[in-house]
Amino acid sequence: DTCKNKRIACAQQDKNKKIMDIPQDPMMLFSFINMKLRDVYPSLDALCDDLHLERSKLEDTLRSAGFEYSEEYNKFW
Cα–Cα distances in Å, from 46 out to 16, 21, 58, 65? Predict the structure, then answer.
């Protein structure tokens, strides 16, 4: 599966099974996730559930780039 081989994670967008690519680059991923948390999702769990992402993998990827999630502020920093 191309999605599994080339991307950190993928998510089904709708019934047509359109795939949303999640950025691979940690800095782009950081920006993308924080934008989604700011504009759309009330929590990291809600984002992960909706985008079908494994929270632990997402956090590990961003942690390896020096970022931690703050539940209080609902963002990575």
Answer: 22, 18, 13, 22
Quick one: which of 30, 28, 23, 26 has its CA closest to 7? Answer: 23
How do beta strands 69-70 and 10-12 pair? unpaired
Residue 68 has pLDDT above 50, yes or no: yes
How far is residue 37's CA from residue 40's CA, in Å, rounded to a whole number? 6
Q: Rounded to two decimals, what is the model's pTM?
A: 0.74
Contact indicator for 72, 28 with CB cutoff of 8 Å: no
Helix residue ranges, H only, 13-67: 26-39, 44-51, 55-64
**pLDDT band per the 50, 70, 90 thresholds, residue 73:** very high
Q: What is the mean pLDDT of the chain?
A: 84
